[in-house]
Amino acid sequence: MTKQFRVLYKVTIIILAILAAMLIGSIILMTIGADVFKTYRVILFEPLKTTLQLTEVLIRAIPLTIIALGISVAYRSGIINIGGEGQMAMGILGTTAVALAFPELPKPILLPMAILAGAMAGGVWGFIPGILRAKLQVSELLSTVMLNYIAAQIYTFMLRGPFLDPAELTMGSGTPQSMRLSTGIWLNRFLKGTRLHTGIFFALFLALLIYLLLWKTNYGYKMRAAGASARAARYGGISVTWYLVIAMVISGAFAGMAGAIEIAGVHRRAIEGITGGYGFSGIVVALFGGLHPAGIIPASFFFGLLIVGADMTQRMVGVPANMVNVLQGVIILVIVATKMILADPYLMERVWRKYQGIGKKHVEVEA
Amino acid sequence: MELTQKKITNLRMEHITKRFPGVLASDDITLEISEGQILALVGENGAGKTTLMNILMGLYQPDEGRILINGEEVHFRSPNDAFAAGLGMVHQQYMLVANMTVLENIALGFKAAWSPYKLDLGMVRDRITEIAKKYGLVVDPDAYIWQLSVGEQQRVELVKTLCLGARFLILDEPTSALTPQETDELIVLLKNMSSELSIIFISHKLQEVKDLSDKITILRHGAVVFEGNTHEHSPSDIAALMTGHEVDLPLNEEPAPEGVPVLDIKNLNVKSDRGFLALKDLNLTISSGEIVGLAGVSGNGQRELAEAINGLRKVESGEIQFYGENIANKSPHHIIEAGMGYIPEERNTEGIVPSFSLKENLILKDTEHDEFSNHAFLKNKAIDKNAEDLRVKFDIRSPNISIAAGSLSGGNIQKVILAREISRRPKFLIAVYPIRGLDLGAAEFIHKQLLEIRREGIGILLISEELDEILDLSDRVAVIFKGQIQKVLDRKDANRRSLGILMAGVKDDQTV
Amino acid sequence: MNFIVNILSLGIPFSVALLIASLGEMFNQRAGVFNLGCEGIMAMGAFLGMLVPYSIGQGGPTSGMYNVLGLGLAMVVGALLGIFFAFVVVTFRAPQGIAGIGLQMFGVGTAGTLFRHFIGGTQSVPGIGNFPIPGLSKIPFIGPIFFSHNVLVYLAFLFVPLAWYILFKTPWGLRVRAVGTNPRAADSIGIQVNKVRYQALAVGGALAGLAGAYLSLAQVKMFSDEIIAGRGFIAVALVYFGHWHPVKIMGGALLFSLAQALQLAIQGQGINFPYEFAVMLPYVLVIIVLAFSRESQLLGPTSLGIPFNREKRI
C-alpha cells in the first residue's frame, strides 16, 4: 500500500463523513421546507460578519472549552461524562452561594473563592457517578444523565427558595432568579460594547493545564493508560478505579468552573436555563476536538458559531434554533462511525485491492 | 433436515489464498481427502490451519482458489452452505451459547425445527436421541452449557455437528483442553466414526497425529510444506518439517541451584470468575535461582494462580510469602514494588497498552520512579534513551520507538514485555505461556533470556501447557490439577509420561 | 382505601410508556446492542404520534383512526431510527454508549425542530380516551385499578407475555439471545449476526416510537420539549434492573410509576413537601436501583456492547 493511497483514502473518508453529516441535516431542513443552502450559510457565516456577533461566538466558546476539557479528561480515562449539564448547574449554585454569603469581600479574595466553590460543587457532582462506577459498576452513562435531572430540580428549588432575589418577592413578579451578585465576582469585559470577558484567558489557561496534566505528567500517563486499556493498566500497578474517580472529579470540577465563569462573566446572577445544553454540546466539542486541548479550542469556536448561527436562523430563514441539536447529534454519530472506518485496516486493504484492480485495468486499456 | 444425503467421496481445496492486513494467512494451498479418511492438518500456531478450515466452512471467503466436492466446484458464502453440503466443524473455542440449554444450542442451527411462530424443540430432542444412540455420545439436552465441564461441552459440540447432518467433520485442536485420558477416549471415538465419515483434524500434538490420522499435511507460514501418509514418518520427522529445522531450543543443563525459598505459597484458596474455587489449599515453594515449571491442562487454576500472586485476583484464604512478606491481597502496585515481575498470558491486551507507543509501554510500571519522572513530570529524554537501549538489547524489530505497541507482531510484543520486566531487575519472575504462538526465533531468544536471569539468581515460575518447554527449562516441575499441586518432581524424574499421568489427576505411582 | 385505589389506578397507565420502551430496549440488549438513543426515538415518536391527529384529524369524528395512524407513523419512524442506529453501531461498529447519546440529541433536536415548524406552541389533542371494559370495570377496587384505562394500557400488559414468548419460544428469539451472548457461536452455525441485530434494533426502535406516541396521545395529550423527561434513559436502566426478563422489567416499570403516582397523590393531599424534590425522586430511585442490581453474568447477554467482527482474529 502506498503512502499516497493512505492519505487519499483518509481524506476521502473524512470528506464523505462531512457530506453525510450535512446531508442528514439537509433532510430535516427540507422537511420543514427551509432553504438548505441559505440556512447553512446563515449558521456558518452570518455570526462572523460583525464584531458583536463574533464576540458572542467567543462567549459561547468559553464554557464549551472548559466543559469539553473536563469531558476529554474523563473520556481519556475510560469514563464518559454526560453529566456536564448537572455539574455546571451545581457549579453555578456553589459560586452563587459564596457570592451571596460574602458580598463585601474584595475581588482578589472573593473571585477565586467563588470559582473554587463552583469547581468543588461540580466536582462533587462528578464524584458521585465516578465512585458509583468504581465501587458498584453503575454505568456512568445512566447515572450522569439521572444526576442531570436531579441537579436541574435542585437548581430550580434554590432559585425559587433560598437564593430568590428579595426584589422578586416584594415586586411579586415571581421570576426565579438570584439577586445581582456582588461586583467582587464580576469578570472584566475588556472589549467595549461587547460582553466578551476575561474568562476567555482563563479557558485558555485551563487548556494548557490539561495538556500538561495529560501528556507531561505521570498522573496523566496513568489516566490515559487506565482509559486505553484498563486491564493492562491494572497489570501495570495502576489503580484504575482510583483514577476513574479522579478523572470524574476533574471533569465535574471543570463543568462547575464553566458555570462559575458563565455567571461571573455574562449573567452576573443565577437565572433559569443558564446551562442551555452546554453540558451536551461539550461532549460533541470534546469528540470533535479529538479529545485534545489543541483541537478542543478551535472545536469550541466552531460550535459556538453553530449555536449563535442557529439563533440567527430563526430570525433570518425561519428555522428553529433546535436545529443546532440536530446537527450536534448527527456530528457525534458521524464522528464515532468515521473513527471506526478510519481504524479498520481490513476495509482499507479491501479498498486498496479494488483500487489496484482499477489501476490495472487502466494500464491494460492504455496498452 | 433438508440436506443432500449424497456421500462426500472426495473433497479438494485448490490453490486457496487468503490475505489479512499484513499477513498472508493461506498461500496457494491445495489439499485433498477421500471418503473414510482422517487427514491431520499439522503446523505451529499461526501457520494458517484454522484460517484454512474457516474458509472451507464458508466463514471466510478465499481471495483466490476453489473448493471441489466430488469433483464439482462449490461456493460457500456462509456456514449454511457448508452445512448443506454436509460439512461440520468443531471449533477450538467451543461455539456454544453459555446461557442456553444444550437443546436450544442445537436448535439454533436446526432449521427444520423453525417455523416463524414456533420452535419445535421436540423434533430437535428426537434428533439428539437418534445421534446419541448411533454414536454412543450421551448428553443431557436440558442442561445449560455453563453447567457443563469442558469435556462435556466438547461432546455437545460433536452431537451438534452430527445433528446438523455433518458427514464430513473438521476438528480444530480437539484435545487442547482435554486431559490425556479424555484425549484417549476421543481418539477411540473418532476412529470408530471414521468408518462413516471423513475427518480433518487440526493438531500440533504429534502423538495424536500418529495415533489417529491416515494422511498428514503440514503447513508453515500459510503454505503446504509437506504431504504424505502418516505411517511412513516418525514424529521427529514431522516435528522437523513443522518447525522448519530440527527443534533445538536452549536447554537448562546446569546443576540445581542452592537458593533459599523466596516465594512460599501456603494453603491458597482463590475463586474463578464463575465463583467456584479455582485453587484449593494450594501449596508451592520456589527458591531463588531456580525455574519451577507448572505443568497442567489449561483451566486447572494456572490463570488464577498467576493473577492471585500478582494481586490481580482476590485471595479467599491462605498466604503468599514473598521475601518474608505476605503479599496476599496486596495491591498490584505494592507487589510490583516488592520486586515481582510478570509476563502475563494475554500479551496483546494485558501485557501492553496497545494504543500506547513502544517507549511508553516500556515505562508502564515505572512512571513514578525518579528515573523517569521529576516531581510528577515525565523525563522525556530518559524515556527515549531507555527505549532505544532496550530496543537494541532485546532485538525488538520496530521502525521507531514511537510506534503504537499494538501494531507490532506477537513476537516483538513479547520482547517488549520481556524487556520491561527484565530491565526492571525483578527479584522474581512469573512467566505464563511465554512462547505461545511465537515463531522459533523469538521463542529461542526468550528462553535464552529466561535462562540468563536464572543464572543471576532470580527465581522463575514458568506456567506452560507445552511439556517440551517445561522439560527444557525447569529445575523442578510442579503439576497442577483441579486447583491443587499434584506433585513436584525433580528434573531428572520428569518426563512426558510421568507428567501426563499426573496431569490427568492420578496421584502417586498408581498404575493407569 | 380510596387513596390506594387512586395511586394504583394512576400508576398503571403511567407505567405504560416505560414498559413499552424498556421491552423494546430488552430486545436490543438481548441481541447485544444497547441503545441509549431510546430517549431520542421516544421524542420523535411523541411528536409524530401527535402530528397526525393534530394536523389532519383535529377533533373529527374519525379521530380514533387518526390516532392509530399517528401511532403507526411513530412506530415506522422509530424502526427507521433503530436501523439508522444499527448502521452506525453494527455496520461501522462505533462505540454504542457515545453513539446512543448522539442519537438521543438527534432525536430530541429533530422532534423539537419539527414541532416548532408544524405545530408550535402548546396545542393539545383529544388523544386516546379511556375504554372501561364493560362489566369488569364495575367491580369495586379491581375495576378502577385494572379495567378502566385506555386500550393501549391493556395492550401493553398483554405484550409482556407475548415478548416472553417471542424471546424464549420462537426461532427469532433464539437467534436474538444467541447473537447477544456468543455471536461467534451463532455465526459459526450460519446465523447472520448483524442481520439479527438490525432486526432487533428495528423492533426496539418501533417500540420506543410507540412509547413516545403513547405519552403524547394518551398520557399528556400534547407535546413539549420535555415530554420524555428522561424516560428513555430510565427504560434502559430498567432493562438492567429486570435482568433482561420481560416479567421483571414489568415489575420495575410498575415500581417506578407507582412511586410517581404516590408522589402526585401526596401532593394532592396538600402535604407541604418541596415540589422539586418530589419530581427528582424517580431519578434518585434509578441510581439506587442501578447500584443494587448487579448484572448476573450467566443469564444476561454477555456480548452486550461488543460489536461483532468475524475477521477479527483472537
UniProtKB/TrEMBL annotation, chain A:
It is found in: Cell membrane. The chain crosses the membrane at residues 12-37, 57-75, 87-103, 109-128, 140-158, 196-214, 235-258, 278-310, 322-342. One of its GO terms (cellular component) is plasma membrane. InterPro entries: ABC_transp_permease. It is a multi-pass membrane protein. One of its GO terms (molecular function) is transmembrane transporter activity. Keywords: Cell membrane, Membrane, Transmembrane, Transmembrane helix. Pfam families: BPD_transp_2. This is ABC transporter permease.
TrEMBL record, chain B:
Keywords: ATP-binding, Nucleotide-binding. PANTHER family: CARBOHYDRATE TRANSPORT ATP-BINDING PROTEIN MG119-RELATED, GUANOSINE IMPORT ATP-BINDING PROTEIN NUPO. GO terms for molecular function: ATP binding; ATP hydrolysis activity. This is ABC transporter ATP-binding protein. The lineage of its organism: Bacteria, Pseudomonadati, Spirochaetota, Spirochaetia, Spirochaetales. Residues 11-246, 263-507 form the ABC transporter domain. It comes from the Bacteria. It holds the Pfam family ABC_tran. InterPro entries: AAA+_ATPase, ABC_carbohydrate_import_ATPase, ABC_transporter-like_ATP-bd, ABC_transporter-like_CS, P-loop_NTPase.
UniProtKB/TrEMBL annotation, chain C:
It comes from the Bacteria. Keywords: Cell membrane, Membrane, Transmembrane, Transmembrane helix. The keyword rRNA-binding does not apply. It is a multi-pass membrane protein. One of its GO terms (cellular component) is plasma membrane. GO terms for molecular function: transmembrane transporter activity. The chain crosses the membrane at residues 6-24, 36-56, 68-90, 97-119, 139-167, 198-217, 223-242, 249-267, 273-292. This is ABC transporter permease. It comes from Sphaerochaeta halotolerans.
